């Protein structure tokens, strides 16, 4: 298959000068962080931002729109509307990444293989966390093999909870975020297409074994168990009749 040429992976830097709207978006983000803004907080009005930074109303609107697309804020309509701070969700990063992967010609098979590697690394790093009390505390709910606790979860929410807790044990926000991307894309594609998922008793058993290995600090075992777990889910996905993993990673 001819690979699309819409993406270059040359590693070059973005040399295009930032547009005013991008600069304003960055200023807004800096202010949100500096003021410890919380989800639900309101941003200053457009007029206040126009006069504060001496930019056009159009630049402020474009900046707000850029941040809305990234999930940083939402813009509420109506009389009392205006920009409001949102809880930033890694799913937005997954969506942006999937666009890039789609344009770069990455297939679902590439995604599944990346997921196996990245999730295995997460488990290994979690088991290497030097704070063994923290490891045990975080893994305790999963180390007890209690299937009913899983409820109806085995879609993204319940399943993802375990994986994001393993990720948080990495103690490195960048690694945690980047390594969770393939799984985030996989689960969001799966749920948007309403395809069947793995049986919860098997998933719970896998999670229990991984949780015990992470708790005990057994890094290589944790990695191998996690890779077996992802392989199990990926193989079940490949077996679904309507699935064709030679297709491009879907953007969305
Ligand atoms: Zn899992």
Descriptive terms for the model:
binds zinc ion; two-stranded antiparallel sheet; mainly alpha; 3% strand; 2 strands; globular; 252 residues
Description:
The chain contains ten helices and two strands; from the N terminus they run αααββααααααα. It is mostly helical and 252 residues long. The chain has a two-stranded antiparallel sheet with strand order 1-2. The site of zinc ion (ZN) has 6 residues, from helix 7 and helix 9.
How do the helices and strands line up, and which of them pair or pack?
Blueprint (H helix, E strand, L loop, with lengths): L19 H15 L11 H8 L3 H13 L3 E4 L5 E4 L4 H14 L4 H20 L4 H12 L12 H13 L4 H21 L6 H16 L3 H21 L13
Antiparallel strand pairs: 1-2
- Stretches where pLDDT is under 50 for at least 5 consecutive residues are 151-157
Distance between the termini: 23 Å
Mean pLDDT: 87
Report the structural category. Answer: mainly alpha
Bound molecules: zinc ion
Largest sheet: 2 strands, antiparallel
Count of alpha/pi helices: 10
Q: Can you tell me the overall shape?
A: globular
**CA gyration radius, whole angstroms:** 21 Å
Tell how many strands the DSSP assignment holds.
2
Percent strand: under 5%
Multimerization state? single chain
Main-sheet strand order equals 1-2
Order of helices and strands: HHHEEHHHHHHH
Percent of residues in helices comes to 55-70%
């Amino acid at each position: 298959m001819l690979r699309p040429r819409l993406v270059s992976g040359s590693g070059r830097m973005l040399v295009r000068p930032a547009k005013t709207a991008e600069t304003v978006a960055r200023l807004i983000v800096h202010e949100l962080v500096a003021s410890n803004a919380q989800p639900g907080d309101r941003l200053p009005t457009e007029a206040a931002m126009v006069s504060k930074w001496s930019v056009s109303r159009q630049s402020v609107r474009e900046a707000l729109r850029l941040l809305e697309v990234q999930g940083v804020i939402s813009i509420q309509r109506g009389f009392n509307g205006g920009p409001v701070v949102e809880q930033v969700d890694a799913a937005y990063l997954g969506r942006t990444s999937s666009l890039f992967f789609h344009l770069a010609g990455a297939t679902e098979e590439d995604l599944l293989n990346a997921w196996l590697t990245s999730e295995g690394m997460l488990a290994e790093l979690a088991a290497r966390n030097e704070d063994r009390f923290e490891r045990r505390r975080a893994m305790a709910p999963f180390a007890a093999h209690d299937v009913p606790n899983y409820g109806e979860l085995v879609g993204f929410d319940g399943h993802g909870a375990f994986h994001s807790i393993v990720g948080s044990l990495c103690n490195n926000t960048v690694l945690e975020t980047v390594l969770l991307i393939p799984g985030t894309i996989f689960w969001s594609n799966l749920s948007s297409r309403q395809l069947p998922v793995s049986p919860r008793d098997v998933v719970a058993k896998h999670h229990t074994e991984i949780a015990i290995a992470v708790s005990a600090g057994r890094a290589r075992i944790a990695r191998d168990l996690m890779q077996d777990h992802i392989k199990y889910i990926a193989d079940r996905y490949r077996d679904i009749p309507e699935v064709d993993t030679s297709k491009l990673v879907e953007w969305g």
